[in-house]
């Protein structure tokens, strides 16, 4: 009895639009980076 399962589509590339992926990361990453920057700035002012 084999413990590995064979799937036919295991090596097919996923065809997602790279542009949409980049746009999604930018929509999340830019506000996140801004929030981290603001938090670190306020922490520095609090302890500095």
UniProtKB/TrEMBL annotation:
Chain ranges passing through the membrane: 21-47
Record's keyword terms, sorted: Membrane, Transmembrane, Transmembrane helix
Superkingdom in the source lineage: Bacteria
Entry keyword annotation includes Transmembrane helix: yes
Record has Transmembrane as a keyword: yes
Protein name per UniProt: Oxalate:formate antiporter
Organism of origin: Pseudarthrobacter enclensis
Origin organism lineage: Bacteria, Bacillati, Actinomycetota, Actinomycetes, Micrococcales
């Amino acid at each position: 009895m084999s413990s590995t399962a064979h799937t036919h589509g295991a090596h097919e590339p996923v065809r997602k639009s790279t542009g949409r992926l980049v746009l999604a990361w930018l929509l999340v990453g830019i506000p996140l980076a801004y929030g981290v920057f603001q938090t670190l700035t306020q922490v520095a002012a609090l302890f500095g």
